[in-house]
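Q: Predict the assembly, please.
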Amino acid sequence: MENNNVNTINVPEVKYTPKDFASDVDVKWCPGCGDYSILAQVQRTSPDFGVKKENMVWISGIGCSSRFPYYMNTYGFHTIHGRAAAIATGVKLANPELQVWVATGDGDMLSIGGNHFIHACRKNINLKIVMFNNKIYGLTKGQYSPTSEKGKVTKSSPYGTVDYPFNAIKLATGSGATFVARTMDRDPKHLQEMLSRAAKHNGLAFIEIYQNCPIFNDGAYLPLTEKETKPDNVVVLEHGKPLVFGANKNKGIKLDGLNPVIIDLEDGKNSINDCFVHDELDDNPTRVFLLARFTDIPGFPTPIGVFRQFHKTPYDIDLMNQIDFLTEKKGKGSYEKLMFTENTWEVA
Amino acid sequence: MVNEKKIQIKQVTDVTVKFAGDSGDGMQLTGSQFTDTTASLGNDLSTLPDFPAEIRAPAGSLAGVSGFQLHFSSSDISTPGDSPDVLIAMNPAALKVNIKELKPNALIIVNTSAFDAKNLKLAKYDSNPLEDDSLQGYNVIPVELTKLTMEALKGTDLSIKEKERCKNFFALGLMYWLYNRPVANTITWLETKFKNKPKFLEANKNVLMAGYYYGEMTELFTTKYEVLPAKLPKGKYRNVSGNEAVAIGLITASLRSGLPLFLGSYPITPASEILQELSKYRNFGVRTFQAEDEISGVASAIGASFAGNLAATNTSGPGLSLKTEALGLAVIAELPLVVVNVQRGGPSTGLPTKTEQADLLQAFFGRHGEAPLCILAASSPADCYWSAIEASRIALKYMTPVILLTDGYLAFGSEPLRIKPFDELPEIPVRFKVNPDDFHPYSRDENLVRPWAIPGTPGLEHRIGGLEKKHIYGNISYEPDNHELMINLRQQKIEKIADDIPDLVVEGDQSGELLILGWGSTYGAIREAVTRVKENGYNVSQAHLKYLNPMPKNLGSVLKNFKKVLIPELNLGQLALLIRNKFLLDVLQFNKVQGQPFKVSEIENKLVEILGGKNGK
Ligand SMILES: Cc1ncc(C[n+]2csc(CCOP(=O)(O)OP(=O)(O)O)c2C)c(N)n1
Ligand code: SF4
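A: Predicted assembly structure:
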């Protein structure tokens, strides 16, 4: 079972099309909501996930983002606020053949669901968690969320928030997630690639998707998504490639001790060879934390891509192996074995 | 010397023994060895351990006393006994804590070796009770247990500490002699336990036998007792505690239904043993998931249920509070789920190690919205087994969460369980929906039950959730009439379970002056109290509710047949409130909320008080 592509057992005989994954329910997000793009990319890539449609399950909590399962023509369960990861865990352990996806929001997963999130990461439960991060509570109409930047003015913080935001990549990494990625609703190709890679990962996969909420937090990611500003504000992580960004690939990032520094690749002092080379397979999280910090340092580009991917036996496989091992060793359980223990006696 | 002594063997029907000592003295082990041996002799029995609330209270202190009470008999019994006939007190603290519970003239075997100045002070004795006259009225047998144990182990290469630790087996050996029980069971047990440690095996065996022969040889005893086998119904038996019974009951339901068992759980006293016990059964395909909290415990179970397992979660009061929201989800999603709540003293952290019945109304009403579910209560440790099977049967048949209420008293108490042949167990048929023709996730059968279509089934892909659903189709629906319809359907589905449960049985006359109506763990105490008052010429009938929601259909007519109805409960009157409301009947209450079960005598006195002057006397 130590197969990196656990889903090969489910490979469908028929070739699906994106339409096969669209349910007949009217999609009801606000016009312009970033969730539409996420749904489209999921439906577009699902045929390549390597699972039969009946083996795909979408579990969600509560929030605009959590309406997601209704729009997928797969098995789905829209549950309660924050508990999606816990419910999905039960689904996966009950039937490890299923490919279990979690659709969630920044409030759903990092606030009320924070405990389930960190423990699902720690246990490496084989779930694919897709977190729509709009840095706001959408469904409850515009309060700040645990990812809202400090000072953010929202309905519940008219004078600006005084709390510090979570950095989801750091949190997932610190909790032991074996696949950690970030992407954006406005970058469909990249989003598709991240989804496909998460699908193929054997273990917990976490994708943070920057998602625009045009109603309550419009433009939160504008500098990252607009054609003119994107090159200077986004650095794409690719395994084995140096960290280079800018309109003409003219900027790079190098390490000065443990501090990242932006370097000019055209000033003759630095070359591409000085740049930090991304190694997503490194299971030491130190470099991931370095990268994840970029969003906290003014002037630094935001990394998107796979921050880390490494293999650790997922919980469900260890559990099933333990069941198989003990069944082999002790013999399959039966009513006789259960009830007639050594302390049984007979009344004649 | 042996021959000079004349020993009389006296037959008794009923004995309550209490082993008590310091937490480190191995009293639970001693008690359970005595229990296993007693069980194998065919006595009926009922046991109750009481351990200190602290994990490691200071040695010799009153807080550190650990006890094990065993009631065994040649007739049918149902409680661990109000007051012991025999106390084995391993130290002064054990004597002090237990003396007030003893019967007058009780036999007290004291380990005099432990009655030194230090231990007397720790037990807060001003003077040595063995030397003043404070134990007058008891039959005190002083035995230098520690010293005799050390002597028996002279020449072995155990450390002093290790030798001392064997003294509980001296006490056990002595008790085996006194009650005419064979040592063979315990020797077999020692042989397995110390298979790889021959020196401990030898030591414990020697001490056990030394205790046994001490009884034979000392002048202190002139009588030994015999309790003949009880006339229990024919069959195979094993002794079970309530928590153990729940665990094996759930596995039995898993075997009977053919579904793998999933338990999502978070440790909490007094419910943790269910998780611990179930985690041993991997070769039965049991999936135990120790979750990060109780919310995840129930949530993972709901997920497992959605995916087609027999799903359960177990907890105690504070944990049930945390599961509340998720239970509402299970109600509206209409998924099978067994929720075992081992009640303890509340509110809040309350009395974690003590028993209470104060979560009944929480089970009924502790969710927002109209969220009916099925509620069962187990009446004895062995009944925990049958109740776990019945809870599973109902959950699976009716696609509903079922709360099974047990409590701390049942959880740790034990009694014999009669094992039925597999094919005599209740049937638990499960039919997953597999045919895609005309599939609607919220269509309903004649019992108003929706189909269970699990992920992995081709062609039945569908979405469910916590939002109100359109009748039959299951799509989200905000229509006012549809919501009311669904509310009513969910309510009616639970009410219809009443057609599928047995009528309430009245033990005794079917009508009369007084009915005593109980639920849950009070069954044994009520039953013995009723037996006693009847022996004294009073007339009273007993009925006990296992099915609390829905209640048996004949309950109303049963109640009408009696002039008075008394409801004893370990709370402030929760069942009484429900019965008053449902039947507009002014029931009498008898309540106790001390973290302790009812004593038989308390109920007996209450009955006599109510019946006083009437009905026969
Ligand atoms: C127990 C509970 N508390 C609060 C709510 C209200 N609530 C619903 S969604 C939500 C936050 C949603 O934010 P997020 O997860 O970021 O999702 P979004 O709507 O932005 O996609 C809150 C607070 C709830 N449904 N349940
Ligand atoms: S409120 Fe925001 S997140 Fe929610 S649907 Fe509307 S745009 Fe999307």
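Confidence is low (pLDDT under 50) at residues 1-8 of chain A. Residues A 29-30, 33, 35, 64, 134, 138, 213-216 surround iron/sulfur cluster (ligand 2) (CB under 6 Å).
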